[in-house]
Design brief:
The chain is built from 15 helices and 30 strands. It has an eight-stranded mixed β-sheet with strand order 2-3-4-1-5-6-8-7, with helices on both faces. Strands 13-12-18-9-10-17-14-15 form an eight-stranded antiparallel β-sheet, covered by helices on one side. The longest helix is centred in the C-terminal third of the chain and has 26 residues. The radius of gyration is 35 Å and the shape is elongated. It starts with 17 loop residues before the first strand and ends in a 6-residue tail after the last helix. Bound molecules: guanosine-5'-diphosphate. The site of guanosine-5'-diphosphate has 16 residues, from helix 1.
Length: 601
């Protein structure tokens, strides 16, 4: 087999470790990657870096030059580092593949001013779950007040040039980060004090803007890879390729293409490949392998250059028919000299690990990659939210159609992570009252949905409360009989609870509640009112009794509470009741249970 173009793999068959850069938005991931690329180009002239599709390879020699005295290239036999370029968005997939991680190693970027933020925590969570070795880049050290920028130098050299005040200030921030790491279950320290980088995470102070500390970061990444990843890096580079889809993209002249990171073996322009698809694995013939043109030729018409074959680790665009249903985060396998069924099974097996549990009823979930879909499904499972449909892709009209057949209002919802809501879908959702929640932080997305559910439940409880009789104790005032009967009209004071029109009125006699009539109207100062609360004195007309016979001035009366209502109030709505109603309810229950201990149970 021919493995031309395997620039990122040396003769011994050690491949380049793949590095993912993660962190909260605006903490400096893009700037960090640009700086690594830019300074590599400055240091090493042509050939210093190779631009891949979705990734940048920095060879060992260039790292040696950039890191100066910190690195002796003779200490290393790994070929360099391959940085995945699409920071953030694909963290869930770059860190997720075949029972482990696509990225071999990661940089967690944390802004020293901003500290840990939601996406920092999410990144930490995935790092923990995938057991990916990583370092923390404590970024933006140049923003410490009074900082005296030193350019592209090792951090110790820069710190030596700072005032005591600025150095102290920086240390405070770094210890803040170390503290937050510890709060999240990671032991960490300044990288120069770390002996065992697996037991203790190294914190590297850097400025992605000025370049301070970048030599240190590269050195630590190189050292970490060399020490702990070397075995994983020994691969059969000539074997059939294996990789992960980073992005599915429409490309003029090529139709739907996939950008992949190849982490094992070789892919050639005449290979048959199997790609994870939305419904089933896609078996297709590679039509072209495409690389970005070198910088010098970037002005030519064509953006890409065709290559015959590439070997891991590399980022490459694959043009092939039938890729419309390919999913970001899905596996890609080269078939070569193997039965195609075997490869399809391998892809299915890998996909089944990411299979999301769905139920007959629940919410619709859409996400940008398989990895993020899995992460969101985990979060929803923890929150006990069932999922009816989970897919990679933008929110489309058919998602709205599914949501609109939901069994209950809380399921008339679509949760969208890092994807677009297509205009048709937006319109249909608003027409059909389907709520669409969009966010790029998983726990915020889940929280927004949970708040919405709480809102619905409260509204439902209020409706129930409206229909249900409410406990109320009131008393007929002395000398306040305005009419004796048909109906009786008397002044009353509400002792506890809420008195409502149309309630049945009972009086306790010999331990039994006797219905004496029905409360017709309530008036306050001649105005009709619907209800009166504890402490209110109002005029009440009661149909049925005659004052002086069934009821007397000074009598304590109750709004009748049907047993079923009492049960709902006590068992489901107790917490929602105001204190005075709760007290009235308790008194009513106590009275009834003196006669029948199981009343309302
Ligand atoms: P991303 O969202 O994590 O990719 O963050 P960016 O790389 O886009 O950076 C966000 C903002 O922070 C931009 O305005 C950068 O110029 C700025 N920034 C990034 N790194 C540094 C740094 O080391 N120092 C300073 N002063 N600003 C930085």
């Amino acid at each position: 087999t021919d493995a031309a173009g395997s620039a990122e793999t040396d003769a011994t068959g050690l491949r380049t470790p793949i590095v993912a850069v993660l962190g909260h938005v605006d903490h400096g991931k893009t700037t960090l990657l640009d700086t690594v690329r830019g300074s590599a180009v400055q240091e090493g002239e042509a050939g210093a870096i190779t631009q891949h599709i979705g990734a940048t390879a920095v060879p060992l020699d260039t790292i040696g030059e950039m890191a100066g005295s910190l690195v002796d290239p003779d200490d290393f036999d790994l070929p360099g580092l391959l940085f995945i370029d699409t920071p953030g968005h694909h963290s869930f997939s770059t860190l997720r593949s075949r029972g482990g991680a696509l990225a071999d190693i990661a940089v967690l970027v944390v802004d020293v001013n901003d500290g840990f933020q939601p996406q920092t925590l999410e990144a930490l969570d995935i790092l923990k779950r995938t057991e990916t070795p990583f370092v923390v880049a404590a970024n933006k050290v140049d923003t410490v007040p009074g900082w005296n920028p030193q350019g592209h130098v090792p951090i110790q050299q820069s710190i030596d040039a700072q005032s005591d005040r600025a150095e102290g200030d920086l240390n405070d921030r770094l210890y803040g980060i170390i503290g937050e790491m510890s709060d999240n279950g990671f032991s960490s320290d300044m990288y120069w004090r770390v002996q065992d980088f697996r037991a203790n995470i190294g914190v590297v102070p850097v400025s992605a803007k000025t370049g301070e500390g970048i030599p240190d970061l590269l050195t630590v990444l190189m050292g970490l890879s060399q020490r702990y990843l070397k075995e994983d890096m020994s691969v059969d580079v000539a074997g059939p390729g294996a990789g992960t889809v980073l992005e599915v993209k429409e490309e003029r002249g090529f139709g739907t293409t996939i950008d992949i990171v190849l982490y094992d073996g070789t892919i050639s322009a005449d290979d048959t490949v199997v790609v994870g698809g939305k419904n089933e694995p896609i078996v297709t013939e590679v039509r072209a392998l495409l690389q970005p043109r070198p910088l010098a030729e970037i002005r030519t018409e064509k953006q890409f250059e065709k290559v015959d074959s590439v070997a891991a680790a590399t980022g490459i665009k694959v043009a092939a028919p039938d890729l419309d249903d390919a999913m970001a985060g899905a596996p890609v396998r080269v078939v070569r000299d193997r039965p195609v069924e075997e490869v399809i099974e391998a892809v299915e097996a890998e996909l089944s690990q990411i299979d999301v549990e769905t139920a007959d009823n629940g919410v619709v979930v859409k996400a940008d990659t398989l990895g993020s879909l899995e992460a969101i499904a985990n979060a929803l499972e923890e929150a006990e939210v069932p999922i009816v449909r989970a897919e990679v892709g933008d929110v489309a009209p058919r998602d709205v159609a599914v949501a609109s057949t939901a069994d209950e209002p809380t399921h008339e919802a679509i949760l969208a992570f890092n994807v677009e809501v297509l205009p048709d879908a937006k319109q249909q959702a608003s027409d059909q009252n389907i709520r669409v929640f969009s966010d790029d932080v998983i726990y915020q997305l889940v929280e927004e949905y949970e708040e919405y559910v709480t809102g619905i439940q409260e509204a439902q409880q209020e409706q129930v409360l409206d229909k249900i009789a409410r406990p109320c104790r009131f008393q007929i005032l002395k000398d306040h009989t305005f009419r004796q009967s048909n109906p009786a009209v008397v002044g009353v004071e509400v002792l506890s609870g809420t008195l409502k029109r149309n309630s049945n009125v009972v009086k306790w006699e010999n331990g039994d509640a006797h219905r004496v009539g029905q409360l017709k109207t309530l008036q306050d100062d001649g105005e009709d009112i619907d209800e009166a609360r504890t402490g209110d004195r109002v005029a009440a007309s009661i149909d049925g009794p005659t004052v002086g016979r069934q009821i007397e001035e000074g009598d304590e009366l109750w709004a009748e509470l049907p047993e079923k209502h009492a049960k709902i109030l006590e068992q489901e709505l107790r917490e929602e009741l105001p204190t005075d109603e709760r007290e009235a309810l308790q008194m009513y229950l106590d009275k009834q249970r003196k006669r029948d201990p199981f009343w309302g149970k």
